[in-house]
């Protein structure tokens, strides 16, 4: 009985930790997108999260630790969207699913995309090793899948890496340049119908470009 109680308390504490970390990370994501790494102070993050500054330091010793955790979490979510490459043998289905997932992520998490873009533009100081290791390994795995599709005659012979770069650029445009899109849309964000139409257009153009439309 005592062991069951201890396990229950441990699970409860872990759940509380996950919840508190999520609140802090959400606040940090918004502020890093708005003010950059230098301008988003731990004081500001604590106020936005609605927690004492000491709580922020309890979960993340330094602002750099918090920033590192956040940007890796953002990229990990993007990489998970490409699981469809491992689950589908049809390039049209896989690419369509990946494009759709990436655009949905841009819409749901625009601040995260902006934080990542700012990090790369500023020289990838905190993400260099992560990109050179984890992201490179992930990308090479997707390239092998695309080359297999080409060898099987399922799509045109194109270079996989520029294709992936193109997908990243256009899908993240809807977050990184969201304000520009709003201005050109009568100062309003795209509604559900317009966004789905945009996804359909992007998907059709890319699939046609690689010969799987």
Automatic annotation (TrEMBL):
Domain HTH tetR-type: 18-78
DNA-binding region range list: 41-60
One GO term of the biological process aspect: negative regulation of DNA-templated transcription
Organism superkingdom: Bacteria
Pfam families: TetR_C_3, TetR_N
Gene Ontology MF terms: DNA-binding transcription factor activity; transcription cis-regulatory region binding
UniProt keywords, alphabetically: DNA-binding
UniProt cross-references to PROSITE patterns, sorted A to Z: HTH_TETR_2
Protein's recorded name: TetR family transcriptional regulator
Source organism: Aestuariispira insulae
